[in-house]
Each structure stands twice: as C-alpha cells, then as structure tokens.
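Journal club prep — side note

Before the paper discussion, L.F. wants everyone to see what a predicted structure for a comparable chain looks like in token form. Sequence:
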Amino acid sequence: MFGYVTVNREELKVKDMKRYQAFYCGICQELKERHGSLSRITLTYDMTFLAILLTGLYESPVHQGSCRCAVHPLKKHLYLRNEYTAYAADMNLLLSYYNLMDNWMDEKKAVSFTAARLLRKEFLEVCARYPRQDEAVKRYMRRLARCEKRNSRDIDLGAGLTGELFGEIFVCQEDVWSHILRRLGFFLGKFIYLMDAYDDVEKDARTGNYNPWMTMKKREDFMKVSEQILTMMMSECAKEFEKLPILENVDILRNVLYSGIWTKYEIVKRKYRENN
C-alpha cells in the first residue's frame, strides 16, 4: 500500500520540489542514524507528507544540512530534519516491517521475510517507543486478515480498517489537533486502501486473490463509480486538512492532496481501459 501519497512534480515549483526532496532525504538520514543503514530500504515518499504536515502544524524548526549517500555518492544533497522527520522515520519502519511480514505470510516472499528478520531489533525498539501506534497496526493486521478470510465484498470494511490505522499514525501526540489529524488520516487511509485494490484488481481477477472491488468490477459503470468513491474519500481528507492552521510548506501539502495522489490513479485508469 505504499507509493500513492506523493507530489505531482510537474505542478510543483522548483523551490518547493527541492524542499520536499530535502524532507525525504532528512527521513532517510533519520532511518540511518536511528535504525542503521539497512533500514533505508524501507524508505518511501508516503511518510514525507506526514513529516511536512506535522512540521507545518506545530511550526517546528528544522535543522538543515547536506550529505552524500549510496544512491547519490557524487553530489551532496540538502536534508531537513526535526522531531517530526524522526517520527516519520519510525512510522515508516513500523509500517514497512508489518508490510514485509504480510508479504511473507500471503505470498511466501523469502526476500520480505529476510528483510523483516534483519530489521526486527529496530522494529521492536519502535514498538516500545510508540505502543499506541504499534497496537493499532497489530489490531489492523488481525481484523484485515479476518475480512479477507471471509472474502467480504463490503468495500468500506477493509478501507475503514486502513483508515483507522492511518488515523492513529497521523496523531503523534494527543492534543487539540488530534481529532482533525485522525479524521485526515482516516480518509487518506481509506483512499490508499481502495486505490491499492483498484491498482491490483486485474491481477487479483486472474489469481483469485481477495479484492473488495471484485463484485463491483462486473458493472458497466465500474470506472465511473470507483472514481466517484475515491474522489469522495479525498474530498473528506482535504476538508479536514483545510481546518488546520498550516502556512509553512502549504503549497507542497496541497499539491499532494489535490494533485499528487491522482497521478498514479491516472496511470492505473489508463492501463485498465487498455485491458478492457
């Protein structure tokens, strides 16, 4: 379920793109220092949005620096770090570990199992540091497994479970903003789950794997209805976002919510049309 919460690079100003990339590099540095170099294999852009969101909401200062890395060894890259890039790095590892184990249990991917074993010590440290978030992921995995075992065709069930998970991840501390952050994460999580299932619907139709869209896929108006549902999820997510008093990096955040998350959808939709 990773790779959907990103920017639309073509519509982002150059200065904002550099700043977005600097937050991403900051999370990469956090992973390296907090959990070792191997943990950087879990890095995705999804948690970059969370780091920028929390930084803007709590107006936290950032530490700026530059570094080289294995991916870019010849040129130094700017990074931005603070307590929220550290939190995003921890949440990235927490979610990635469970995702690796899910891949192992569902598809017996040996690479996923090996990576999870190598990251287990760091994973347990994150669990101890954030028991509420860890319990939310454990609860999610149990409930989603039951949903898939029943082969539920209720598209809102699995989506709602994912929404609850992301709601807890988006709340780094209980305060006046917790309710809004939970609802923002809830609707974004529902979108991610449904978008991921939409992306896999053709493959799952061939393999017989569980997919909540499968029954609706038979409808002639499937593409129209699915787009309406996905749009509704992001409309509610954006509504919650606009309640937050964020000024810093707001153009980056709006790019993600109003444009970036749809870039992958357009690719998937085009592929689906070609196949059908």
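L.F.'s comment for the group: The chain has one domain: 9-275. Keep this in mind when we get to the figures.
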